[in-house]
Amino acid sequence: MSRMVFATILRNNYPKNSSHGSMFYCCHQKRQSPLLLLLCDAIRHQSYHSYAPKEQLMTAQEVATALRPFFFVIHPDRFWKYPKQKDTNEDSLKQLNSFIKDVIEMRETNDRRIKFFMRDEIIDNNEMVKSDNIIDVKFKEININLFRRENVNKIVHKILSESRLSTDYLKKIGKQPQMGSTAGTEGHGMTSDGFQFKYNQNSGPFSFNRKVNDYWVRTDINGRQTIETDPELDDFEELFEKKKIDKNLIEWLQENRHLANSRLHTNEPIRQELNRLADQLKQELHLNDIIWKDCGWGVSHIRAALNSVNIMKQQFDINVLNGRTLMFARQSGVSFDGHVVLNIEDVRHNWLAMIKNIHTYDADLKKLPFVESVLSGALRGIQIDHRKFRPTVIISSYIKQLEKLTAAISLYIGQHGFPPNWSPILDRYQLVVECEAGPLMLSPTGQFIVPASCPAFLLFDFMSDNMFKARLLRDMYLNYKSKEEHIVNECMTQLGLQSIDKDDNVTPDLMIQCCNKLIANRDTLSLRNSRLRVSHYYSVLLDGEICIPWDFTL
């Protein structure tokens, strides 16, 4: 077909004022082949719906971070007593690493099916748990199909989903896989706590459906939940809001108290063993304390982490920890409190590498007061504090952030000076360097939360507009904080609780309201010997802890 005939066909099918027509005319004027345009257009329509955004793929570093919980539970080091499972996991792990590397680097590879074992320890609940009291160890077998046609986002999501691990990190970085339309195999089963579930394995994504009362609660790959009735799907958020209004604390406790007591009783031996291990390690390593409060894992996982430290102590010299506080969190390093922080999702050799290099962190720790004082001096004596409700900060990156913000502020002051309405001394205010990049805001406790990359002129304008509010919030926080400790202790005593805790986003004033309401209704609620957590939702955690919203109704 000649160029002129082909051009006539395209001209008749694509008007000049259309997007494709204008592209053709531009192409024709430049003497480029219209066939190229047609093929590109066909490819574009075949691959995506019109103007659909292209899926952003994960980097190698993001893949490593996302799969860190999976590597922890299947790592061969955790199966050193079980050669068969250890060898299987070791071989499968090598295959998985090779396959993911090939996919990321877009090299040719083959489809494969790999198998992993996960531990499921059964503990004798009638006596104190010790390391040699594990009477039976069962293994859950996980089979994962790896297809070369799937992108790395789908592969990572599939691995985490089939291992029943959280995919929140993929949502956080915006790399959750796009939903496919191909129907897949389905199955049914029941969880250990009695919930029925069914699943659908599409070409890549994995959806998990759990039966609650007469509904199927479905969670898709984008984190969206729906409730399936007969046979239509209703919007989960709408139903949830109705259920939240109708469900009061007394009704919810009647339905879930047995489950909470059962889990609490089951985990009590593990909790005792956990405390025994912690005391043993503190004594043998001369530690000031061991902290795991904010690590985000249950008692079984924390006990496994302490066992790993105990094994590491027997195999290597880690006396450098003497006189320090050991903390388990979601990252490794040294906090600005001087605590040695171990990522609870890592394995022992990563911990050992960090501990061997702890002297490098000590140098940063000694440097920290000077760096903070320089930033404070640049802002007329403002207090450089650490956010009240925030995960552990690693000191090396924190110092770099302080220095970056100090340089920007000093340069701006040299060129423009301070705002005329500022007080000569700002020591009544607090500033927190939160992260490298993020929102500039005022916290509920009256602190200025500033990202290290914030331009100085934005910071100065924001502080000028919010100084009065910051001081007011700060005074309110200090007032509520002093009352909170007293009311929490009284609530534990009056209700006979084993413990009471709260989520970081529950501020002291909300905690006070909740505790006062609990005390006023203590005879009706019957929470004696429970472990309670004040949050924003109802739930029973795996270790038996009861979560209730701070604004519960009766």
Task: Write structural notes for this entry.
With 554 residues, the chain is α/β, with parallel strands linked by helices. Helices cover 47% and strands 18% of the residues. The protein is built from 17 helices and 20 strands. The protein has helices spanning 3-13, 19-29, 34-47, 60-66, 68-74, 83-104, 152-162, 168-172, 236-246, 249-284, 299-315, 348-356, 358-378, 395-416, 456-495, 508-520, 522-525; strands at residues 112-123, 134-146, 185-190, 196-201, 206-212, 215-219, 225-228, 233-235, 289-291, 325-329, 333-334, 340-343, 383-384, 430-433, 441-442, 447-450, 499-502, 531-535, 539-540, 546-549. The strands form 5 sheets. The chain has a 6-stranded antiparallel sheet. A 4-stranded mixed sheet has the order 9-10-12-11. A 4-stranded mixed sheet has the order 13-14-16-15. A hairpin with a 5-residue loop joins strand 3 (185-190) and strand 4. It is globular.
